[in-house]
Recover the amino acids of this structure.
């Protein structure tokens, strides 16, 4: 049997048709499809502006640059996340600061954010871990009280909701960042977007993703219709129209994708209810998770069994993963930046007990039930 991965894209004939149409057109790089994809992202989330870019990582970096995060600034993010959530601060010369997680949702703990504030703190980057929205009420209150920028790392959370607003609406933040990597809610191959309601940030973002070049708001006199200016040091982080066409087509199916993920989570929840070995993910009141991941966590007395069970699951055909090693425990953060283990105890405890099970819309009922059977078998007798 082919191994069942923890995440996988769902590409249909409609997606393929949309991409082929672009391949036969005049525009392969950023063109009309990119603008239409941005419009569709705004319509879906309710945000005023969207800027699509070449990856979620590029989106995070540009969001930090648009917020003018500078050397010596501190940026607080979660200890349990993908490295890109913290690396974006480093790319601005700023220092990432890690706040611990809430043991239940595995999201950044607002109480620990408050403990880690200093007079150098400039921004907060909460991560909606596994698609479960963070406590945005508290996070936006802390930001207002301390005059901080909030950039949501919503790489897991396209399609999730927090108190009647969709993640990406930026109702509780300055900007929100999506990723369209194949394991995420929808895919464009590689790709990402920054959402915002702030025109100033929007103008900077579109300039920065295109080398810092603009034809508007000129510094010097315009000498002809060719004239353009490079006003900031930017990048080529444009999304191609090939990717954008795929994104438009995928976005139409997002609600069906999220329903499928939620149905699988529900099957797992019920199959594993009351088991003595591990806890399943929680979903709090007034939020709707997009279930990007389904991380189970071994109970305290089975902590020592994680490695054995993980390898057993792999041998039995499940492409399980661990999301994530606390970012500050990575060699670069320890050896080059001087971070030490022990910094975020709840994050380290979670990390030592977590295993992500397969969850994605393309899983068949047979595969879903195979996952349940294999997990039960792997734990049996431990
Ligand atoms: C996937 C991911 C990113 C980066 O997105 P890419 O599109 O892969 O660059 C950033 N943050 C989190 C939490 C992610 O899961």
């Amino acid at each position: 049997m082919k191994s069942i991965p923890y995440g996988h894209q769902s590409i249909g004939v409609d997606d393929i048709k949309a991409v082929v149409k672009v391949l036969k057109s005049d525009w392969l790089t950023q063109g009309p499809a990119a603008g239409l994809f941005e419009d569709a992202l705004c319509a879906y989330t309710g945000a005023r502006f969207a800027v699509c870019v070449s990856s979620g990582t590029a989106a995070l970096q540009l969001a930090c640059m648009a917020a003018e995060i500078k050397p010596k600034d501190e940026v607080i993010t979660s200890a349990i996340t993908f490295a890109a959530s913290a690396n974006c601060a480093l790319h601005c010369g700023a220092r990432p600061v890690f706040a611990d997680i809430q043991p239940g949702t595995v999201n950044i703990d607002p109480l620990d954010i408050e403990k880690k504030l200093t007079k150098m703190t400039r921004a907060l980057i909460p991560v909606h871990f596994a698609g479960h929205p963070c406590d945005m009420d508290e996070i936006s209150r802390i930001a207002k009280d301390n005059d901080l920028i909030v950039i949501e790392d919503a790489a897991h959370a396209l399609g999730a909701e927090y108190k009647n607003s969709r993640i990406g609406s930026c109702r509780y933040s300055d900007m929100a960042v999506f990723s369209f990597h194949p394991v995420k809610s929808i895919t464009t191959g590689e790709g990402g977007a920054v959402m915002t309601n702030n025109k100033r940030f929007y103008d900077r973002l579109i300039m920065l993703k295109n080398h810092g070049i603009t034809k508007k708001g000129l510094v010097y006199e315009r000498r002809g219709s060719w004239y353009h200016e490079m006003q900031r040091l930017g990048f080529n982080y444009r999304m191609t129209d090939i990717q954008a066409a795929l994104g438009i087509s995928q976005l139409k199916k997002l609600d069906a994708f999220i329903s499928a993920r939620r149905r699988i989570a529900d099957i797992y929840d019920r199959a594993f209810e009351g088991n003595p070995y591990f806890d399943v993910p929680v979903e709090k009141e007034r939020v709707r998770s997009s279930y990007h991941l389904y991380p189970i966590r071994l109970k305290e007395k089975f902590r020592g069994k994680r490695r054995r069970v993980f390898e057993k699951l792999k041998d039995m055909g499940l492409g399980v993963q661990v999301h994530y090693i606390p970012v500050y425990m990575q060699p670069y953060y320890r050896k080059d930046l001087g971070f030490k283990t022990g910094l975020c105890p709840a994050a380290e405890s979670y990390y030592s007990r977590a295993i992500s099970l397969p969850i994605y819309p393309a899983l068949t009922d047979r595969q879903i039930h195979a996952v349940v059977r294999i997990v039960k078998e792997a734990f049996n007798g431990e």
